[in-house]
Amino acid sequence: MDRSEVDTSIRALIESFNKKGMDISDATRFTDDLEFDSLTVMDFVAAIEDEFDIIISMNLQAEIETYGQLVDAVVKLLG
């Protein structure tokens, strides 16, 4: 799965979490721009893990601040 396909899938998943209806770019920050709280982050991560059949470790989650970083991390985990 290439970055474009991963991006498309994650964009579909984020729709239900994007309560502010913001346009999503690689620079979009989850806490600052989308105002995700810790529970929303956990639910969103679980949805991504289910969609791609991957595990995103807590250490990796702590490093991901932007949408682009998330897409890149998922692409890397898919190997």
List the helices and strands and how they pair.
Elements: H1 3-14, H2 38-52, H3 58-63, H4 67-78
3D architecture notes:
With 79 residues, this protein is an all-alpha fold. The protein has one domain: ACP-like (Non-ribosomal Peptide Synthetase Peptidyl Carrier Protein, Chain A, Orthogonal Bundle). The protein is built from four helices and no strands. The protein has helices at 3-14, 38-52, 58-63, 67-78. The radius of gyration is 11 Å and the shape is globular. The model has no long low-confidence stretch (mean pLDDT 96).
List keywords for this structure.
single chain; about 80 residues; mainly alpha; Non-ribosomal Peptide Synthetase Peptidyl Carrier Protein, Chain A; globular
In short:
The chain has 4 helices and no strands. By secondary structure, the chain is mainly alpha-helical.
Shape-level CATH architecture: Orthogonal Bundle
Number of strands: 0
**SSE-based structural type:** mainly alpha
Percent helix, as a range, is 55-70%
- Give the overall average pLDDT: 96
| SSE series | HHHH
Radius of gyration: 11 Å
Shape, principal axes of CA atoms: globular
By CATH's scheme, which homologous superfamily applies? Answer: ACP-like
N- to C-terminal separation?
A: 9 Å
Number of domains: 1
Q: Beta-sheet strand percentage?
A: under 5%
CATH class: Mainly Alpha
Number of helices: 4
> Which residues sit in consecutive blocks of at least 5 with pLDDT less than 50?
none
User: What fold name stands as the CATH topology?
Assistant: Non-ribosomal Peptide Synthetase Peptidyl Carrier Protein, Chain A
Largest sheet: none
